[in-house]
């Protein structure tokens, strides 16, 4: 397994994003020590966001100290009757070490809120875009 830099991991996430049929297009890579553990993209599983798709491919123990690289800021709760917790909330309950975000969500209802949720959970976040 090839060890990749954070920049290379983001390039893989961007490649995943290109598989999306609908906007917003989102790609995700989960890695530990630069080794890719899982990938996912929005729409790979009908109705599931990219983060949830990639996370579902791993056991929780594999997520311990892992890094999530996502092309778009993880989403937050948009309304009180959402059927599942938001991606930012889900990630904040897992043993993830850091999340690297390509860009903050331009949607004014989300912008910066997903990153703040991760920060409150003591998950290091880095924005590259």
Describe it for me?
The protein is of the alpha/beta class. Helix content is 26%, strand content 22%. A 5-stranded mixed β-sheet has the order 2-1-3-4-5, with helices on both faces. Strand 4, helix 4 (113-120) and strand 5 (124-127) form a beta-alpha-beta unit. The termini are far apart.
* Sequence of strands across the biggest β-sheet: 2-1-3-4-5
N- and C-termini, Cα separation: 27 Å
Task: Tell me the Rg in angstroms.
Answer: 13 Å
Poorly predicted residue ranges: none
Give, in order, the helices and strands. HEEHEHEHE
Strand content: 15-25%
Structural class: alpha/beta
Largest sheet, in brief, is: 5 strands, mixed
Total DSSP E strands: 5
What is the chains' assembly state? single chain
Shape: globular
Mean pLDDT: 93
Keywords:
129 residues, alpha/beta, globular
In short:
This protein is α/β, with parallel strands linked by helices and 129 residues long.
List the helices and strands and how they pair.
Blueprint: H1 6-17, E1 27-32, E2 35-41, H2 50-56, E3 67-72, H3 87-92, E4 98-103, H4 113-120, E5 124-127
Parallel strand pairs: 3-4, 4-5
Antiparallel strand pairs: 1-2, 1-3
């Amino acid at each position: 397994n090839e060890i990749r830099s954070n920049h290379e991991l983001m390039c893989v996430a961007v490649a995943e994003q290109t598989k999306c049929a609908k906007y917003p297009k989102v790609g995700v890579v989960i890695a530990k020590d630069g080794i890719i553990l899982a990938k996912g993209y929005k729409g790979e599983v009908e109705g599931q966001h990219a983060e949830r798709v990639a996370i579902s491919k791993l056991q929780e123990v594999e997520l311990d100290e892992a890094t999530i690289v996502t092309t778009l800021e993880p989403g937050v709760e948009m309304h009180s009757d959402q059927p599942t917790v938001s991606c930012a909330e889900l990630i904040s309950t897992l043993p993830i070490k850091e999340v690297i975000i390509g860009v903050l969500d331009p949607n004014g209802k989300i912008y910066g809120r997903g990153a703040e949720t991760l920060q409150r959970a003591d998950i290091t976040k880095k924005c590259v875009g």
